[in-house]
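From: lab user (bench 3)
To: helpdesk
Subject: output format question, protein + magnesium ion

Hello, I'm new to running complex predictions and I'm not sure whether the block I got back is the full result or only part of it. Here's what I submitted:
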Amino acid sequence: KLSKIMVPYDGSEHARRALDYAKGLAAMAGADARVFIVHIMPSDMIDSKDLDDGGSLDGVPLGLVDREAYQGLVDKALARAKAKVAEGLADVVAEMGDAAVIDVVADPSAADAIVYYAKKNDIDLIVMGRRGLGALRGMLGSVSYGVLHGADAPVLTVK
Ligand code: ATP
Ligand code: MG
Ligand code: MG
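Helpdesk reply: Thanks, we reran it on our side. This is the complete output you should expect:
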């Protein structure tokens, strides 16, 4: 069964090629196949624009704000990241229609978050780039390595 394909997306051309590959697989798999395009946002991506004076929320230093206020900031950052991903992928998403689902998750570890997301959502196949935005020209990025190591679902890496 190949009805739920996950593409971890970091905005790199590698991840974009993984998405194009997954799109082809989904088309072969049938009309009910879905491609979950998932970006993991590090929690430190919270934008200082959302803070009253660039470093605090209602005068309270960010490290000391309560959980609910902090969650509000995370939610704003997630919504902004999701809009950015959707904008960058407008062409594919328009082509794929309901078959494409964009999701953004806040987590300091992209690999752990991808493994957890796949498990939680019963993902049948993970399709990801062999490398990503990192500058090092190694053969396998650390996120791909971590997902290959940790995921129960099969993982396909795309060059
Ligand atoms: P490194 O990050 O280890 O310096 P890299 O950036 O070249 O190296 P990875 O980060 O492992 O390599 O990227 C490989 C693939 O992992 C990407 O093509 C993408 O599919 C996925 N990926 C990486 N980071 C994220 C992220 N933050 N959210 C979603 N997917 C990601
Ligand atoms: Mg990377
Ligand atoms: Mg990295």
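A quick orientation on your result: The domain at 4-158 is CATH 3.40.50.620 (Rossmann fold). Let us know if anything else is unclear.
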